[in-house]
Design brief:
The chain is of the alpha+beta class. 26% of the residues lie in helices and 26% in strands. The longest helix is centred in the N-terminal third of the chain and has 21 residues.
Amino acid sequence: MKSVIGETTDAEYQLDEEIGRGAQGRVFSVKGGKYAFKLLGKKTSKDAQLLKRKISYIKTRDIADLNISKPIEQIKGEFLGYIMEIATDMMPLERLLKPTNDLNWWEATGGLKKRLIILKNLSTLLSDLHSRGLIYGDLSPKNVFVSIDKNFAEVYLIDVDNITHLSKVGDAFYTPGYAAPELVKGISGADTYTDDYSFSVLAYQLLTLNHPFIGNYVNNGDPEIEEEAYAGNIPWIEHSVDSINTSTKGLKSSTTISKKMMKEFENTFETNLLNKLKRTSTLKWSEILETSLLGLLVCSSCKNTFFFTPKLLCPFCNIQKNSIGIVQILELNATLKNELKERYTEITFDAIKDVGNLIHRKIASLDEYIPVTENDVFLNKSDSILFEIKVGAEYNYIRGVNQKAITVFAHGKLKEGVDIKDETRVSQGNWLIFSKELNEAYQRVIKVGRYNI
């Protein structure tokens, strides 16, 4: 099959290469880079009518702003399939699940940072879909497409014929290994909770190169044991008290999963495995993953990204950093704000313990700029960068992006309207930056310093 003809437009779509294959069909790229073609199999009148209804249903849903490959039209001829939109330079997520200990491959494909951003974007996409009363239904590494370039982490969902608002018991189609236990056992249809479970499986697998339920016991057992594992009848590979199914493959979770993230995996795969109402939602995952990205450091030797630990030791190559820069964004409390208004230079910040509640903490290697976004400061979900801060060996530096002036307090003095259009050097020590002038309603403090081992 070299080309297909659109049923509605009579347009000819030249097929390029196969970019995905699953139980429901095969996906081909279309020459020109704007579309893809999903081949479902041989056409029957019943199947064609069902697909037409599915496409019509999706076209009427409120998903135009989401990264979901929108269906365009069915094709003519003996085969059943449809044309869909797709972003260029994308690949199936399964290509990042290579079971290997080759750390060169891990870093060359984006390392931990890219994988965390992919999961952050995917969890946000799914939670947005759920907020509109829709479910995806069959989440797996074959129908999640991600950027090929190691420096980008865009996410697209394909196979949109799965999307619906409900699924009856026994009607749900799922990919083995990614379905919630209640789907495998046939006691529930697909819903937002089964999407949440599928995401957790995919997330754990992407970060460790291990399926959470396929450990040594399952790998060495009869084929029936795998089905039992997927049904939740065998402990997951990191069970807190039952080690029968531990795994000696993949990456250590302590290397690529933070403590907060591990609590949610334990909640989903152990504590509330069979209680879907209490398993971790994609919305909560989105929040946790966003926070986890703030704790990444870059190894100066192997270039891998890794989570902050007090020892500043890279788990991939065991090279240790001596110090890092830390930026803390706090909410300025009302009492201190009023004192500042009345007497600028008489306040000694060393003596003040309660500056305000911590909103965000961001870390970075020395001499690496840390972006401060609107969301970091105002929690408004905007990624627009206000300014960037760098901690150096002797000085701190700040440069404006969308905000060109700040207020600085250092060495017992406060100066308003400091121009930061260009890189501005600030002495190290106890100093704060006020994100808005003192009479603004949303007052923030940014404390910058070094952490030394």
